[in-house]
Specification:
The structure holds two protein chains of two kinds. Chain A is built from 21 helices and seven strands. By secondary structure, chain A is mostly helical. In chain A, helix 3 packs across helix 9 and helix 5 packs across helix 6. The chains are: A mainly alpha, B mainly alpha. Chains A and B meet through helix 10, helix 11 and helix 20 of A and helix 4 and helix 7 of B.
């Protein structure tokens, strides 16, 4: 099944013995010149790149105070060392968060601290953990900063709150700035600029899919549930990952959103221009590209004259939406201020459940014994509702309103301690399948526990990447792809439709 | 052994995802050889139904379709394409269609 060793699930999770360099060969394809240029990056490694990379690092530490604090403040306490799913899955010590950070920190020390400059001039920078910028360092960066899914689990355990994700984003931005970009992310961002979504689905293809879904729902339920596209004057603009128009189980979630809007009597539309919630600009640490992608949502909302923006099930999109959208593309003073701007589809559905405005027949999900995977960016970089921890409570409340059988995985693997699916942060590409399979190990161990102890049959998620990653990798661990479901797929299957 | 040699020479150049670099090189023989290489097949009528559906969709829209729609339009269950080709990406490869982009490759590969 694979040309690499698939980790075995042990009875209890163990901290593995170190195998230095064992995952040094894992790296994604490099972006071709054309894709680099469409994102305003150099097409190939520039002349004098060592100095330019050092200068860019200086620019970033000057611009982002947080980055400088993270690079300055590590005391090597070791609290983070066993917290990364990629370390646990690969056993490579450079996947320990502190070691990953040090790949950038050593260069920062060499050029931006007194001790590094002093001992660097004496020719012994290593004496103070500093290192010259050279090809060996760049190769290490390319490999190991693409073995970080920017999930931020390590930052929860760091006494200083050092955020490896931010360091990893900075490293990727520096690499892009000297002409070394990652093919998967950069080509996809270009696709958004050109077509409007990551999957490259043009307006007629979207229209065809949405009409097909209307027919599906009509055939299954007898109700005329609409899936509107580019409808001016709709109340809600739904911004959802384009995977929701394309893949399973994502598309089952989209059917759930549509049924909820239908039953609530709220008019809604998808925009072909902003047919993507994902924003890979964040993964590559590029503020400019993240802003350009975000502005499409603003333009679509203005063009269509909507009053509200609701985001579909997508983890990092919700981080960008919840935490950054207002400063990236605001102010949204033209939207209805009585609702959260933007709102998550789970908040939307949960509100209706609280009001008793939608009803469910839970027995429709009786063939499923559920668990729930908290997606990293939702768990650790955003919130839902108006109480702390809402991002954990609300999705679970929806599952429990639609299903009779629900069991959580072990507490140190969910909530703010949740493990990444293994495919986040711009790593969801087959070039990195070995890393993806290995990085899924801690989640697979947790899943196995509830399968064995409670007879869990399905795991729900609210992130397009998580769903796709699990669908692909869980067969390596003896599960089957349709054991992964969308939260709104459960809603879709249990909702009682009453309005024609 | 002879058959392997013939097959390897019969396949036009592929890209890093195993997709035809130039879709103009596709014909039914290429499809048969590609399928064999991928461990799919021998190609049955149902495989060909899918190949034709994907090619027709691509010609019309310039993009890959949602596979559950392909299944539904043929009155089949939702894993029809996956089960016949092991992955939807294999179906796309055998159909000789161009690289649909990084994200589409990922999602076709995952289903």
């Amino acid at each position: 099944m694979a040309d690499f060793e698939i980790p075995t699930i042990k009875e209890y999770p163990v901290i593995p013995h170190l195998q230095p360099g064992v995952s040094a060969h894992l790296k994604p394809f490099v972006a071709k010149a054309d894709f680099q240029k469409s994102l305003s990056f150099p097409g190939e490694l520039v002349e004098n790149w060592e100095q330019k990379a050092v200068d860019k690092l200086g620019e970033l530490t000057g611009k982002y105070r947080s980055l400088r604090v993270f690079l300055d403040s590590c005391v090597k306490c070791g609290a983070c060392t066993d917290k990364c799913h990629y370390y646990l899955g690969t056993t490579d010590p450079k996947n320990m968060p502190v070691a990953r950070q040090d790949l950038l920190r050593q260069v920062y020390r060499r050029y931006y601290t007194f001790a590094g400059k002093f001992f660097g001039k004496l020719g012994i920078p290593g004496f103070v953990g500093a290192k010259e910028m050279n090809k060996e360092v760049l190769d290490d960066w390319y490999s190991y900063y693409h073995q970080c899914s920017q999930c931020r689990r390590c930052s929860v355990y760091c006494p200083y709150g050092i955020d490896t994700a931010e360091i990893s984003m900075a490293a990727r931005e520096i690499m892009d700035s000297v002409g070394v970009g990652q093919k998967y992310c950069n080509e996809i961002i270009g696709k958004v600029f050109k077509v409007g979504n990551n999957l490259g689905l043009p307006q007629p293809a979207l229209e065809d899919t949405l009409l097909g879904l209307e027919e599906d729902v009509k055939a299954a339920t007898g109700f005329n549930v609409k899936f509107p596209l580019d409808q001016k004057g709709a109340e809600v603009l739904l911004v959802t990952p384009s995977a929701d128009f394309f893949a399973e189980p994502h598309v089952d979630g989209l059917m759930g959103y549509a049924k909820v809007f239908h039953e609530a009597g709220v008019s809604w539309t998808v925009s072909s221009y902003a047919s993507e919630a994902a924003n890979f600009g964040m993964f590559i640490g590029s503020y400019e590209n993240m802003r350009k992608v975000s502005l499409r949502i603003r333009e679509a909302a203005l063009e269509l004259g909507v009053k509200r923006i609701v985001f579909g099930e997508c983890g990092h999109a919700w981080r960008v939406a919840y935490s950054f959208l207002n400063t990236l593309a605001g102010p949204f003073d033209f939207l209805d201020q009585n609702y959260p701007i933007p709102q998550h589809i789970c908040e939307f559905t949960y509100d209706l459940i609280q009001k008793g405005a939608i009803k469910f027949d839970k027995t429709a999900n009786d063939h499923r014994v559920m668990t729930y995977h908290d997606s990293c960016n939702v768990a650790r970089a955003s919130r839902m509702g108006n109480t702390p921890g809402g991002q954990f409570k609300i999705p679970r409340a929806i599952i429990q309103a639609t299903c009779n059988h629900f069991y959580d995985m072990p507490p140190d693997t969910i909530g703010e301690a949740t493990y990444c699916c293994g495919g986040g942060g711009g790593l969801l590409t087959d070039d990195l399948i070995e890393l993806r399979v290995k990085g899924a190990l801690p989640r697979m161990e947790a899943l196995k526990q509830v399968v064995e102890n409670h007879g869990v049959t399905h795991m729900a998620a609210i992130c397009a990447i998580c769903k796709s990653q699990f669908t692909k990798v869980i067969p390596y661990y003896g599960f089957t792809m349709d054991q992964i479901v969308s939260v709104h797929q459960l809603v879709s299957d249990a909702i009682v439709l009453t309005r024609q | 052994m002879l058959a392997t040699t013939l097959h390897s020479t019969a396949i036009p150049p592929l890209d890093e995802h195993g997709l035809l670099q130039d879709p103009q090189h596709w014909n039914q023989t290429v499809a048969v050889v590609l399928a064999e290489r991928l461990g799919v097949g021998p190609l049955t009528n149902e495989h060909w139904q899918i190949i034709h559906a994907l090619r027709a969709h691509y010609t019309r829209f310039g993009a890959a379709p949602a596979m559950i729609q392909v299944c539904r339009l043929h009155g089949k269950e939702r894993h029809w394409v996956h089960n016949l080709f092991s992955s939807c990406l294999n179906a796309w490869r055998v159909a000789g269609l161009p690289n649909p982009g990084e994200e589409a490759v990922t999602y076709l590969s995952g289903t």
